[in-house]
Amino acid sequence: MATERGVDGWPWPTMRDYLVEKLPRMGGQRVDEMLDEGRFVDESGRTFRRDSPFTPQTFVFFHRDLPTETPVPAGIGILYSDERILVVDKPHFLSSIPRGRHVLESVVVRLRTQLGLPELTVAHRLDRVTAGVLLLTRERKWRRPYQEIFERREVVKKYRLVAPVVHDPAGEGVTATKSGWQVRSRIIKERGILQAREVPGVPNAVTDIALIGEHGGWGLYEASPRTGRTHQIRLHMQRLGAPIVNDPFYPVVLDTPVDDFTHPLQLQAWRMGFTDPVTGDPRAFTSRLRLAAWQ
């Protein structure tokens, strides 16, 4: 972080006062502890003390505290690897990228460490609770070409999921097709709210859904999203009257401990296909994972 440019009459007598104001989530007590430990330094590596006078236009370097994380009890399967990309089977509960409470327990951080690939990053994301095919780029120079095929909706994705069997769903936005149903609705996701929601208006989310197997009142479904709205498949299964097994957000948000790995959402990014943006070759990758509720 960098201190700010301004005029005479700075409101912070010391660097400590500046840091406390600019790092409210850290709190004054933790800022003091880190100052005492010498963890705030300038560009030359000199440490700041509690009484160091505020100095404008100065870079301040520090490492944030990492949250305590419970290891996710599952490995990451490698589906494909070449000089540009890495395709993996992401397990349930493992975050795609380091974020919030999930830093070490993320695909990116785990694989950067295990494979010695410091520039490894994802070309797209899967929700933490969703398992399946995830594409990463090995070096920074390859990131943009592969990200752009997702942004342009040039990747064909198929998901598989387990939910109660329905044969004749009806309702607004549900249309029968030769293979199943197409669901259309308008979905919005507000910042800071866990659930996305459907609202009246022009549809911005479309999913093709087919029931491909039945057993004991439960169904195996295949979902092909034509758009990429947050929690789209989960909301559209709700609209069919068949909520996905073990969904912690829909129809209601469940108070599930972050280290409870006993009831994975039965949703899997099963297959991905695209034309390679670098070589022009067709690519297709299929998950080897099995949904626990459909064995």
Automatic annotation (TrEMBL):
Coiled coil, from the record: none
GO terms of molecular function: catalytic activity, acting on RNA; pseudouridine synthase activity; RNA binding
Domain of life: Bacteria
One of the GO BP terms on file: enzyme-directed rRNA pseudouridine synthesis
Residues in Pseudouridine synthase RsuA/RluA-like domain copies: 85-238
Catalytic activity as recorded in UniProt: a uridine in RNA = a pseudouridine in RNA
InterPro entries noted in UniProt: PsdUridine_synth_cat_dom_sf, PsdUridine_synth_RluA-like_CS, PsdUridine_synth_RsuA/RluA, RluA_PseudoU_synthase
Name of this chain's protein: RNA pseudouridylate synthase
Source organism of the structure: Cutibacterium acnes (strain DSM 16379 / KPA171202)
Lineage summary: Bacteria, Bacillati, Actinomycetota, Actinomycetes, Propionibacteriales
